[in-house]
Amino acid sequence: MSDIIQLLPDSVANQIAAGEVIQRPASVIKELVENAIDAGATEIKVIVKEAGRTLIQVIDNGSGMTETDARMAFERHATSKISAAVDLFALRTMGFRGEALASIAAIAQVELKTKTPDNDLGTHIEIAGSRIQKQEPISCDTGCNFLVKNLFFNVPARRKFLKTNATELRHIIHEFQRITLANPKVAFVLTHNDQPLMNLPAANYRQRIAGVMGRHINNQLIPVNTEATVISIHGFIGTPQGSRKTAGDQFFFVNNRYMRHPYLHKAVMDAFANLIQPDAYPSYFLYFDIDPEMIDVNIHPTKTEIKFEDEKLVWKVLNASVRESLGKHNIVPSIDFDTEGQIDIPSRVNTEVTAPRIHVNPHYNPFDTEPAQTREREVTSKDWESLYQGFQTETNHLDTHEEPETILLASRGNDTPLQESFVDNTEDRPIQDSTYFQIKNRYILTPVKSGLMVIDQRRAHERILFERFLSIIQTQKSTTQQVLFAEAINFSADDAALIRDIQTDLAVFGFDIKENQTNTFTVSGVPSEFDKVNTSQLLEDLLEAYKTGEVDAASEVKEQMAAIMARNARMKAGERLSGDQMSHLVGQLFQCSMPGYTSSGQTVFSIIENEEMEKRFK
């Protein structure tokens, strides 16, 4: 039998290694930008075209490389960060394996221009598929200028699995956010298709967070600062009011390196227990400083997972830090043990102290009850109306949790007849001239031939709006209501990218939204059905639906958006309806094609059969 084991060529081995390191264009940006930070750069520019498919350019003003280093940097396992295995446990730099440039050069066409401060001329290298195409001296600026073109040009199977440009751009923005948040002293610029997405000058941590996530988050940040023997934690957490239904604004950094850690995430969530909804996520930006010997960063190809020597201890310190910050800002009660029993007692200044006065009734007779009874009768007869003051309230603004057991009755006249085409089954159709009852400002009751129909008024309204929006999509005729004061909404870079993708679809429904500044959109008009809807909350719900996968960009986006907007535009919980309003709502419901269910499949109405009611009285 002949020998079958053989060594792989370097080009094939590099392509296999690239599969672990370079998964998408965002991975290229991560590796190149981290190398620029390790080189001491203070300004980094990232230029992307077609979401990185055709071009990724990273320009920095770091230390640059010599001619020999520039050539050696593209070899596998070539690095300046470590020289022995023990160095892995003292790392404070980003890239250290020496696989990034070799992997990128294996699956793309790479061009490098670099120069050190000591040299007058730099080096120009061109590589394609791990093969050197050109190397020559060149006049260039100090630092490095990487151009990565036609990613996965020689691996068509990998290129085919790339997502849409919008999706890949969001991955690039997410990766860019992680790097910029960890390095606030470095200035960053991100440009996509000649459109600036981020322009972040050097700043402090709070300013950088506001620059990356949007100015609106600045008022929702609570500082965290804890110094322990094993670890130091600083950064910011968001207020409970700023929590969102989807995860995304949660960031851990260890020695300026981004990491994901579900176990430590639970420590933060535990501190927010009973302050936010169970399905909500608070935002946090927490930075850990720890001895590199107590962590292991070399456990994952993308280096986003870190193993701690004592995770339980870090969990306790983190949990206590977040609780302390929430307590200091009056979010939860806390006891300050640093006061050592000192209590601030308010003192009176420049106030005159007078002796208390005693009022005595000289005519008081404990054995004479007649005057007291007379006075009681006088007060009762004279001031009885005052006893009822303050008990009259507006019934239209009752809280849904404290509303009385009221039943609103409405008789349906002949002026609003129900159409025979509401439903196919006449047994399930409200009877002509039927009566409507509203219970607990939530349900509408009306008799039908088969029994008693119970309608959820909010779900009914949602179904009506959903089919109305579907009609707008089909006819392309929407009614836009101009707002009195245009609302400017600031988004983070990734949310702004999503808004740009759905901007055309929103215009179909009647939204007038324009981007007047980078990542800032002005809402000048809304659909006529949205006169009482918070536009910023609606857009946030749409973005969360995209992030959670509720809206699939590959399917019918407009129909999914119609369902989300119908849920946001439906009537508020506990809204009291008049008789005409109930009659009109039920009439519109049974004109829908599917009145029995909402767009998400929830039941709109249910019928209590006559037989069931008869059984209850046997």
Automatic annotation (TrEMBL):
UniProt record similarity statement: Belongs to the DNA mismatch repair MutL/HexB family.
Function: This protein is involved in the repair of mismatches in DNA. It is required for dam-dependent methyl-directed DNA mismatch repair. May act as a 'molecular matchmaker', a protein that promotes the formation of a stable complex between two or more DNA-binding proteins in an ATP-dependent manner without itself being part of a final effector complex.
SUPFAM superfamilies for this protein: ATPase domain of HSP90 chaperone/DNA topoisomerase II/histidine kinase (SSF55874), DNA mismatch repair protein MutL (SSF118116), Ribosomal protein S5 domain 2-like (SSF54211)
Entry's Gene Ontology molecular function annotations: ATP binding; ATP hydrolysis activity; ATP-dependent DNA damage sensor activity; mismatched DNA binding
Pfam families cross-referenced by the UniProt entry: DNA_mis_repair (PF01119), HATPase_c_3 (PF13589), MutL_C (PF08676)
Domain DNA mismatch repair protein S5: 209-327
InterPro entries on file: DNA_mismatch_repair_CS (IPR014762), DNA_mismatch_repair_MutL (IPR020667), DNA_mismatch_S5_2-like (IPR013507), HATPase_C_sf (IPR036890), MutL/Mlh/PMS (IPR002099), MutL/Mlh/Pms-like (IPR038973), MutL_C (IPR014790), MutL_C_dimsub (IPR042120)
Protein name (database record): DNA mismatch repair protein MutL
Recorded GO CC terms: mismatch repair complex
Domain of life from the UniProt record: Bacteria
A biological process from GO: mismatch repair
PANTHER family: DNA MISMATCH REPAIR PROTEIN MLH, PMS, MUTL, DNA MISMATCH REPAIR PROTEIN MLH1
CDD domains hit by this protein: HATPase_MutL-MLH-PMS-like, MutL_Trans
Domain MutL C-terminal dimerisation: 436-577
Keywords: DNA damage, DNA repair
Transcription as UniProt keyword: no
